[in-house]
């Protein structure tokens, strides 16, 4: 997987509102915070979704590279987790879309 593939997979992971969360990287079905790589995780924040895909479905860890890529395109300096927590689900998905489109255009 390359960084664009990770962005697409992470976006797909949180595409449905019930699979997206705020104020923690991931939650289980009861809403309790869990590790983003946990088998019991059912929802993720933007960073948690990237972490889940980049660290558990890739041969090389890409979390930092992909997080930096999306942060660059959404132009939010406080970090991806804070960006996730201060935006709506639709805005987070739109941020992923913007980053994916820009990265594809630039061949990232």
Tally of contiguous helical segments: 5
The succession of helices and strands, N to C, reads HEEHHHH
| Structure summary, number of beta strands | 2
Strand content: 5-15%
C-alpha-based Rg, rounded: 13 Å
Largest sheet: 2 strands, antiparallel
* Residue runs with pLDDT of under 50 for 5 or more positions: none
Share of residues in helices: 40-55%
Descriptive account of the structure:
The protein is mainly alpha-helical and 108 residues long. It has one domain. Helices cover 54% and strands 6% of the residues. It contains 5 helices and 2 strands; from the N terminus they run H-E-E-H-H-H-H. It has helices at 3-13, 46-56, 63-74, 80-85, 89-106, and strands at 26-28, 41-44. The chain has a two-stranded antiparallel ribbon with strand order 1-2. Helix 3 crosses helix 5. The model has no long low-confidence stretch (mean pLDDT 88).
């Amino acid at each position: 997987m390359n960084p664009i593939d990770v962005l697409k997979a992470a976006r797909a992971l949180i595409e449905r509102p019930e699979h997206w969360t705020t104020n923690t990287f991931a939650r289980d079905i009861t809403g309790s915070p869990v590790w983003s790589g946990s088998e019991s995780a059912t929802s993720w924040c933007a960073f948690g979704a990237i972490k889940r895909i980049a660290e558990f479905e890739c041969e090389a860890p890409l979390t930092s590279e992909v997080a930096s890529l999306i942060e660059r395109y959404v132009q939010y300096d406080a970090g991806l987790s804070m960006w996730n927590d201060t935006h709506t689900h639709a805005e987070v998905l739109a941020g992923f879309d913007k980053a994916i489109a820009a990265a594809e255009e630039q061949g990232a």
